[in-house]
Amino acid sequence: MNRINQRFTDLKHQGRKALIPFITAGDPAPEHTVGFMHALVEAGADIIELGVPFSDPMADGPVIQKACERALKHGTRLSHLFTMVEEFRQSDTTTPVVLMGYLNPVERLGYQAFADQAANAGIDGVLTVDMPPEEADEFGPILKARGLASIFLVAPTTSNERAATICAHGEGYLYYVSLKGVTGSASLNADDVASHLAPLREMTDLPLCVGFGIRDGATAAEVAKVADGVIVGSALVNQIAENADTPEIIPGLLKAVLGEMRHAMDALNRN
Amino acid sequence: MTKFSDLTRMPDARGHFGPYGGRFVSETLSFALDELEKIYLDLRDDPAFQAEFDYDMAYYVGRPSPLYHAERWSRELGGAQIWLKREDLNHTGAHKVNNTIGQALLAKKSGKPRVIAETGAGQHGVATATVAARLGLECEVYMGAADVERQKLNVYRMHLLGAKVIPVESGTRTLKDAMNEALRDWVTNVDDTFYIIGTVAGPHPYPMLVRDFNAVVGREARRQSLEQIGRLPDALIACVGGGSNALGLFYPFVEDDDVAMYGVEAGGDGVETGRHAAPLSSNAPRGVLHGNRTYLMSDEAGQVSDTHSISAGLDYPGVGPEHALWKDVGRVKYVTANDREVLEAFRELTHMEGIMPALESAHALAYAKVLAPTMRPDQHIVVNLSGRGDKDIMTVAKLDGVEF
Ligand SMILES: Cc1ncc(COP(=O)(O)O)c(C=O)c1O
């Protein structure tokens, strides 16, 4: 079984919700990424989304744009991500890793080469922000053949008809974008999120995870009440940005931010 | 294999031009693009819409633009007769207004109170600010900070027209970054905002509708050639940034197999130096940026390359997807003119014909200087003079060592 499916099965048995941190690989420099990943797991991460830095991150706000710039300044490229995950897998064989990024670096490498190298490295899923299912006719089956989950976005603006198509193509989990905007936007409205998740529940058995606008334990817990997973990016990347000159203290800070969310989410079960 | 006659039937229902084009956007924008496509397809063949467009073209833009025989310059070059399609004489000074008038009609139909645009040279920004002023729409224009610097005049024009110009400091601070930022704005404000894209790029249906609105250039040029020359021209030349003025001129001639077509990309310091903005002529790899698949200048890791051109309007690493297909099937020959040749052509046309071209358009003129002498005096070339040079006077003055 794919590690992502295994993880959601386990969480369901435990009655817990998934906590999914996002960081940009290579930020602030490539040698730190694997250490950060382990720190995130120690603080309670269930799945890690690893951002592939791109020169033109059109769906991202300033925080992740700058993370891409820092990573690219150090020459981080897709091939380095494969090495990072390989290294991560030497001591962590269970935490699923999802690559999240834009299509062009993948196109440049070639779909088949990408799928082969990603699978060999121990990657579990791929979310390509600018590739909706309509454009994934060729890529989807290639990923599937290598056991990689194609993860798709659903937005507040997605019609029910489109959502059905997306559910039919999606694997691993569905990434619900909580608001109209770029990553790092102000804040989400939990009631609004709940009302959008309800029809999706009717359409699919895929776990529904929510990202964009989750800043702290309170927002994470609110979302965890209605979703199967909570995705947090800019709040973590902010810590990396603010301490890029002292990378040795970053793992502790990441753990503090993520740990607070984990605690707030798990407290739901105890109430 | 795509036949030339198939080229008139592109794109397919999903916006693909062969392997190019498409709709590579994040999910939030999918509904807005569906909506835009529906509005456009409903209106496209509606006689009332056509009449409204034609009326604005005639009485607001000042069409048809003349086809002018540059006799003195042709004699000087000693070959084919050169005819200039005078898009520089349009209201706001470039072909860009053909498209913004069309999209403004769509914006009106959509009922959205706000429009945004990206701009390089500022011509598309000015054309957008102009239609927004006329329709009473709120208007914000994204412009790379480097371009704000080199196109100050147009920045102030937009300001006078009531638009807000937002300098973009990210990335290479040019057109591609302006487009990134405009897309980010659109994702955030998609409910009340209409995005007026300025060239035949972006996600489907933009490449199709921007082409259709600019095709008025080629329809006129074809008719004018028959009237004034007595036959179709032997060759067409247009500069290619995103490719809207070129497609506008070329598209109505696509099935005229005897009409050769040349698209002139920005050679910058010279294609061999790597400092250019010529994805087609430099054989850049295929890639995906700003919603479509095309030829895209990028490094081996798939990071989009920096581009270089004296002309802000051509300083873009990609090109409209329809041009990518036309390159593959060989219908258009893509060539370059470098900055030095462009400045020479700018000065030559100004001196010999009293017409000051935009630096973008001067790329097409620079290639006319190469092509005309290889042809006979009874042959004819139509060059798209896509815009006027007022906006570039500062750039040229600076090169002359003149400060204002
Ligand atoms: C006068 C003029 N010509 C050409 C262009 C390039 O655009 P396109 O290739 O879409 O015609 C511009 C863009 O700013 C322009 O201002």
Describe this structure in words.
- The complex is a heterodimer of chains A (271) and B (404).
- Chain A has a single domain (3-270), classed as TIM Barrel, CATH 3.20.20.70.
- Chain A is built from twelve helices and nine strands.
- Chain A has helices at residues 3-14, 33-42, 62-73, 78-89, 103-109, 111-121, 139-145, 160-169, 190-203, 217-224, 234-242, 250-270, and strands at 18-24, 48-51, 97-101, 125-128, 149-150, 153-154, 174-177, 208-211, 229-232.
- Chain A has a nine-stranded parallel beta sheet with strand order 5-4-3-2-1-9-8-7-6.
- The model of chain A has no long low-confidence stretch (mean pLDDT 96).
- Chain B has two domains: 4-56 and 97-210, Rossmann fold (3-Layer(aba) Sandwich); 63-93 and 214-399, Rossmann fold (3-Layer(aba) Sandwich), CATH 3.40.50.1100.
- Chain B contains 14 helices and 15 strands.
- In chain B, the strands form three sheets. In chain B, strands 3, 4, 9, 10, 11, 14 and 15 form a seven-stranded mixed beta sheet that branches. In chain B, strands 1-2-13-12 form a four-stranded antiparallel beta sheet. Chain B has a four-stranded parallel beta sheet with strand order 7-6-5-8, with helices on both faces.
- In chain B, α4 packs parallel to α5 and α9 (206-228) crosses α10.
- The longest helix of chain B is centred in the middle third of the chain and has 23 residues, at 206-228.
- The mean pLDDT of chain B is 96.
- Chain A binds chain B through residues 54-61, 65, 72, 77-79, 102-109, 129-132, 134-135, 152-159, 162, 166, 177, 180-182, 185, and chain B through 14, 22-32, 34, 170-171, 176-177, 180, 183-184, 187-191, 285-291, 293, 296, 298, 300-304.
- Bound molecules: pyridoxal-5'-phosphate (PLP).
- Residues 94, 96, 120-121, 123-124, 199, 239-246, 313-314, 358, 360-361, 386-387 of chain B line the site of pyridoxal-5'-phosphate (PLP).
- Chain A: The alpha subunit is responsible for the aldol cleavage of indoleglycerol phosphate to indole and glyceraldehyde 3-phosphate.
- Chain A: This is Tryptophan synthase alpha chain.
